UniProtKB/TrEMBL annotation, chain C:
<dbReference type="GO" id="GO:0006865">
    <property type="term" value="P:amino acid transport"/>
</dbReference>
<feature type="transmembrane region" description="Helical">
    <location>
        <begin position="200"/>
        <end position="226"/>
    </location>
</feature>
<dbReference type="Pfam" id="PF02653">
    <property type="entry name" value="BPD_transp_2"/>
</dbReference>
<comment type="similarity">
    <text>Belongs to the binding-protein-dependent transport system permease family. LivHM subfamily.</text>
</comment>
<dbReference type="InterPro" id="IPR052157">
    <property type="entry name" value="BCAA_transport_permease"/>
</dbReference>
<protein>
    <submittedName>
        <fullName>Amino acid/amide ABC transporter membrane protein 1, HAAT family</fullName>
    </submittedName>
</protein>
<feature type="transmembrane region" description="Helical">
    <location>
        <begin position="7"/>
        <end position="31"/>
    </location>
</feature>
<keyword id="KW-0472">Membrane</keyword>
<feature type="transmembrane region" description="Helical">
    <location>
        <begin position="51"/>
        <end position="77"/>
    </location>
</feature>
<feature type="transmembrane region" description="Helical">
    <location>
        <begin position="264"/>
        <end position="282"/>
    </location>
</feature>
<feature type="transmembrane region" description="Helical">
    <location>
        <begin position="89"/>
        <end position="113"/>
    </location>
</feature>
<keyword id="KW-0813">Transport</keyword>
<feature type="transmembrane region" description="Helical">
    <location>
        <begin position="238"/>
        <end position="258"/>
    </location>
</feature>
<keyword id="KW-1133">Transmembrane helix</keyword>
<dbReference type="GO" id="GO:0022857">
    <property type="term" value="F:transmembrane transporter activity"/>
</dbReference>
<dbReference type="InterPro" id="IPR001851">
    <property type="entry name" value="ABC_transp_permease"/>
</dbReference>
<keyword id="KW-0029">Amino-acid transport</keyword>
Length: 381, 318, 290
């Protein structure tokens, strides 16, 4: 047995090498939190990538070459994310990475991507991912800072000067809470009450009561994602606080309305992307075709209503494939340059134009202030 | 020449660290190896606490968190070199273990478990909430250790992956050597005695409370160093490192592989670290498989994988 | 005053869920000396199965009943397959087994159901009831009522029925119980079924308030466990009081001190109780045979 072991092993290794060389394909890597505390976001992201890769390959791939997607599930653990990123770079030899559902995982992945000089498009919200700008890291979602600015802009128009803040203690909530506190002053708004809740909590009436009793509160803002905001919204209705409630883009999905209940969700405002109001878009809106196509593909394949998170993955894939098509070669350096040269690319989240100093590519206009009326998304005035 | 258990263990570990890189197809395997060694350090501490002294801790990740964040914060706020930050982290962990251990170790069984659980959760909560200091749940950057560049200046050029693989491997061998020495020492014998029966140990003059505390403090230092090494190699750390799930992971690794033996615990660490990497195709089933493995091994191979396997090989039977 | 009342209502609502989970812990601990870390998963299953059945078209009461029955069956299976075979194993092994069971059930739930968040309609509507300037949801009353009714039912069962007393006898001394003719196997099965059923009931009652998804089990398990410890492990009265106490401590801390550290308050309480009153509020001081 020992005599044949080594030759067999060598043969296997050789054949592996041969097989990978034979297929001309573009290897794309992804590390997404499809399970774990962010599964609610990661699951649609993973499904979106799989659907889009299948779609693209069926249509002939890019320049005749198929896309091979190597998708790993980091379960929201930044340590695992780093290991998978290392695996994608060193073992799977991908030319680009999409992923990082949460900020923590994104920061881990980008460390590896920057070291290996491979382009990485993140799907997480924190501004720290692209500010300061890192050469190979881009991102598709609006930053939490922009969400705050959009919300405060609306509040300022409504004449509010004092608000209450109730945030989840998870990464998204805490980060957005910090950004909002930072920019509130620019819009003449003071935060008079500042409460938090654990994302797994079942009842926030205590915190909301404190906010209601604080003097000078004219509206309430809830940065968070997952089930927390739904419970906050229901508690809000239960306590009959009566002041306008603003949510974050972390709950921009139909699932939120369903969980909070149409009654409680009535009148809630949040900054959403075109994806949620696809039917309300003007026919000449640049985003309408992209949004409608994605909505049809995703809902058709999975039966789950679209949400912005899947949209982030869609846009990342769009940016990447668009760049690969334009690049001189399907090599990391060329792809990176092509991504940075992207202008006016319409995605579901907004219209992207990257520059050497702007790896987000979006401005506030891509965000639309939405309001929930009768259980449906409407554009807020 | 019959090898003592101690020499055999150290030899196996040294061989593992030195020889396996020859089989690595790519740099990624160095990363996995380094992670296994880091986890191995933590579980060696658990072996001392749970295997030798028979005390349960469901909150040891709290010490890993202290070690990790010491490396993130001390260089920035105190101007310490990251290597010294590791020592600082270990010192703080030891101090905390000493403070918390004295009242906690009076408890036994599930009560001890829940008390340590509470401690671990409190540490992770502080790390999570004190955003001003720790940057909160999104995590914080950890400064570069700098040892790799020093080695490069001396002529030894290693990739990042290679450096951390051997560096952590070295720490693991050192930690195992210390733990094995402890086993044979009077302290170790006292620990094993009180594991068997606290009352009996007391009657022969063992200062049970003090011994338990020593084991707790020592294992806390192991966890702290493990956390520090993780933070330094990732150059980034989040409060999850101190979380409840990480504590459970540490205990599971040790118990799965065999909490009575260091090699066994390291085997457990290896298996659980490799599991998500191996199951990537079946990522959907990972939790299912993990839960199943945990239950099956504990029911059928009660002492853990390594002791059971060794028993089979020796042919002595049950 | 109305503020305090609101905090009270908040604390009592979540406290009731914790109390039910703690009761479940207590029953299994009494029967088999095992702390079942998978208790929280029974709560999750109660909620998820009800949602699943209801979404498939079944009327809510029937869906709830199916959920409770199915979970009780799962509890029995868990005992037969995971706990019984490991009798006599050291505490740390038992902890790993039940945590393994918890992870296994979560993994299965992800596959059988999905990873999204779900809920179902409240039993008697969503209109809050106004008392003294504070509001409470009708569903909260269901949860609190459920916890109290379960406790009373268990009390009657354990003290007034022969079967209940057989359960107590078995938990006291298994061998002696067998010697007087008690079918201890049946008693064990019953205990696990009861405990799982109570957990599922908690899930069914609480989901309209707390929402449910495959990962909610751990949170309930930790808090419920803390409550059972606080009240004295093994004492049903302690479980009830402990569970409500944890809920109230949380709400009061969130209301008057810091919402960020409200979970910490509960755990600090536990640590204090364990240091100064190690057997819990209602536990008996135990003596060990040497």
């Amino acid at each position: 047995m020992k005599k044949t072991l080594i030759p067999t092993a060598l043969g296997l290794v050789a054949s592996l090498g041969l097989t990978t060389a034979a297929l001309a394909e573009i290897r794309l890597g992804a590390s997404i939190s499809a399970t774990g505390p962010a599964a609610f976001l990661g699951d649609p992201e993973a499904k979106t990538l799989e659907i889009l890769v299948e779609q693209l390959n069926a249509a002939g791939g890019i320049g005749g070459e198929n896309i091979a997607l190597v998708l790993y599930d980091d379960a929201g653990d930044p340590n695992k994310a780093r290991t998978f990123a290392t695996r994608l770079v060193e073992d799977d030899e991908v030319v680009a990475i999409i992923g990082g559902t949460t900020t923590g995982t994104s920061m881990s992945i980008l460390a590896v991507a920057e070291d290996a000089e491979i382009p990485f498009i993140s799907l997480a919200g924190a501004i720290d991912i692209i500010d300061p700008v890192k050469r190979h890291t881009f991102k598709t979602p609006h930053t939490d800072r922009m969400a705050c600015q959009k919300i405060f802009e609306h509040m300022q128009n409504q004449g509010f000067t004092g608000i209450g803040l109730i945030s989840g203690t998870d990464g998204f909530g805490a980060s957005m809470q910090a950004q909002c506190k930072d920019v509130a002053g620019d819009f003449g708004i003071t935060i008079v009450a500042d409460e938090t809740y654990d994302p797994k909590d079942a009842d926030m009436t205590a915190q909301l009561t404190k906010i209601r009793n604080a003097a000078g509160v004219q509206a309430v803002l809830n940065p968070g994602f997952g089930q927390g905001p739904s419970i906050v919204t229901r508690n809000y209705r239960q306590l009959d606080i009566g002041l306008p409630l603003y949510q974050s883009h972390g709950v921009a999905s139909d699932g939120f309305i369903e969980l909070a209940g149409t009654d409680a969700a009535e009148g809630v405002r949040l900054p959403g992307t075109a994806l949620l109001v696809a039917d309300l878009l003007a026919d000449d809106d640049a985003q309408k075709p992209v949004v409608t196509a994605y909505k049809a593909a995703f809902e058709g394949k999975t039966g789950i209503p679209v949400g912005t998170f899947g949209g982030y993955a869609h846009d990342a894939f769009l940016i990447l494939t668009d760049a690969i098509a334009r690049a001189d070669a399907a090599e990391p350096a060329a792809i990176r340059d092509a991504i940075e040269a992207t202008t006016g690319l319409a995605g579901t989240t907004g219209i992207y134009s990257f520059t050497a100093t702007d790896h987000l590519g979006l401005d506030l206009s891509a965000f639309r202030m939405l309001e929930i009326k009768d259980g449906k998304w409407m554009l807020a005035e | 020449m019959k090898l003592s258990a101690k020499t055999a263990t150290l030899l196996v570990l040294a061989l593992l660290v030195a020889v396996t890189p020859f089989f690595f197809p790519s740099g990624y395997y160095y990363r996995v190896g380094a992670l296994i060694f880091v986890n191995g350090i933590a579980v060696t501490g658990i072996v001392i606490l749970t295997g030798y002294a028979g005390q349960i801790s469901l909150g040891h990740a709290g010490f890993a968190g202290i070690g990790a964040y010491a490396c993130a914060l001390a260089p920035v706020h105190l101007g310490l070199h990251p290597a010294l930050a590791v020592v600082l982290g270990a010192a703080i962990s030891a101090a905390m273990a000493w403070l918390v251990g004295r009242p906690i170790l009076r408890l036994k069984g599930y009560y001890l478990g829940v008390a340590t659980l509470g401690f671990g959760i409190l540490v992770s909560m502080v790390l999570n909430n004190e955003r001003e200091l720790t940057r909160g749940p999104d995590g914080i950057d950890v400064p570069e250790l700098g040892l790799r560049t020093v080695l490069k200046d001396w002529g030894l050029e290693l990739t990042n992956g290679q450096f951390w693989y051997f560096f952590c491997g070295l720490f693991l061998i050192l930690g195992a050597w210390l733990a094995l020495n402890l086993y044979d020492s009077p302290t170790g014998r006292a620990l094993r005695a009180l594991h068997g029966s606290e009352i009996a140990a007391r009657t022969v003059g063992v200062d049970v409370a003090r011994m338990k505390l020593q084991a707790f403090v020592i294992s806390a230092v192991y966890a702290s160093v493990s956390g520090s090494l993780l933070a330094l190699q990732n150059k980034f750390i989040t409060p999850d490192v101190a979380g409840f799930m990480h504590s459970i992971e540490m205990v599971t690794m040790a118990v799965l592989g065999g909490v009575g033996s260091i090699l066994g615990a390291i085997l457990g660490a290896g298996i659980l670290t490799l599991l998500p990497q191996v199951l990537t195709v079946f990522a959907e089933y990972e939790q299912l498989v993990l839960g199943l493995v945990m239950m099956l091994v504990m029911i059928f191979l009660r002492e853990g994988l390594l002791p059971s396997i060794l028993r089979r090989l020796r042919g002595t039977g049950e | 005053m109305s503020e305090l009342l609101q905090f009270l209502f908040s604390g009592v609502t979540v406290g009731a869920v914790y109390a039910l989970v703690a009761l479940g812990f207590t029953i299994i601990y009494n029967a088999s000396d095992v702390v079942n870390f998978a208790q929280g998963e029974f709560v999750m299953l109660g909620g998820m199965i009800t949602w699943f059945a209801h979404a498939a078209g079944l009327p809510l009461p029937l869906a709830a009943l199916i959920a409770i029955a199915a979970t009780a069956a799962l509890g029995v299976a868990m005992n037969k397959l995971a706990i019984e075979p490991a009798r006599g194993a050291p505490v740390v092994s038992l902890i790993i087994i039940t945590i393994g069971a918890s992870i296994f059930i979560q993994g299965a739930a992800q596959l059988v159901f999905d990873k999204q968040i779900h809920s179902f309609p409240a039993f008697s509507g969503d209109d809050p009831i106004r008392i003294g300037g504070a509001t409470i949801l009708p569903q909260s009353l269901w949860v609190i009522g459920g916890a109290l009714a379960t406790f009373v039912g268990l009390w009657v069962f354990f003290t007034r029925t022969l079967l209940g007393r057989a359960v107590l006898a078995t938990s006291n001394n298994r061998l002696a119980a067998q010697l007087v003719g008690i079918n201890t196997n049946f008693v064990m099965t019953l205990s696990f079924a009861l405990s799982a059923g109570i957990g599922a009931l908690a899930g069914v009652l609480a989901t309209p308030i707390t929402l449910t998804s495959y990962g909610v089990g751990i949170g309930f398990a930790l808090k419920g466990f803390a409550g059972a410890m606080l009240g004295g492990m093994g004492n049903p009265k302690g479980a009830l009081v402990g569970g409500f106490a944890i809920g109230l401590i949380e709400a009061m801390t969130a209301g008057y001190l810091s919402s960020q550290y409200k979970d910490a308050a509960a755990f600090i309480m536990i640590l204090l109780v364990l240091f100064f009153m190690p057997q819990g509020l209602f536990g008996r001081k135990s003596t060990d045979r040497v």
